[in-house]
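re: ur question from yesterday

yeah so i grabbed the chain u mentioned. its 204 aa long if i counted rite. heres the sequnce exactly as i have it in my notes:
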Amino acid sequence: MKSSTLLFPLAILFSAWAQANYLPECSNTDVEPCACPNGTEFQDSHTYAVVGTNVENFKRLFSDFYNVGWLSANLTATNGPDNHVGSKRTIESGSAVGVYEFIEELIEFATYPDGGFVQRFTLAKPIEYQSGNGSFAGYWVTLEARYLTDVETTILWGAYACFTGHPLALSTFRAGALAGAEATLQQKGLLTGINVAPVSLQSF
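ran it thru and got these structure tokens back, copy pasting raw so excuse formatting
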């Protein structure tokens, strides 16, 4: 018992030292954790949920990269074909440090034989805070929908990021977006299964 008590803080110290000295830079390669630029810190957030609809319904309504209405964002510009890797969208969205235009680039889009899909995108260029005391240095988001049953879809929604402070409440944002998606499905008569409320795991 004593040895494990001593080893635990040593393990934490070694982990912190290793992260500071050996982690790769954060990038599209999806290696977590990773090293963020000076003045920002690594943070990740993952949300899991079940939406009571067939995965094909969810894909048809919510997989388009240029469809951001359900995300409570305002689409102001697009560049390239929808759902084409390399295409970019510009969205206007609020944060704890003000309202900004974020240029996001699609880095992966694929469909699965079960009817699901995966969409990955990144912040195309860093944004300095309006206050001048920090930045959105980068973020990398993965949205995945997978078949669970004929009337239920598993949602895996994760992100890792390099921010100064914590300007985005990612888990709260996702819960709101999924609630809006469920409301849309309900209005269309497509919500016929059981919803499981989002559960989020975060590390900052």
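noticed a couple things. Confidence is low (pLDDT under 50) at residues 1-15. also Strands lie at 41-51, 74-79, 88-95, 98-111, 117-123, 127-128, 135-149, 152-163, 196-203.
anyway ttyl
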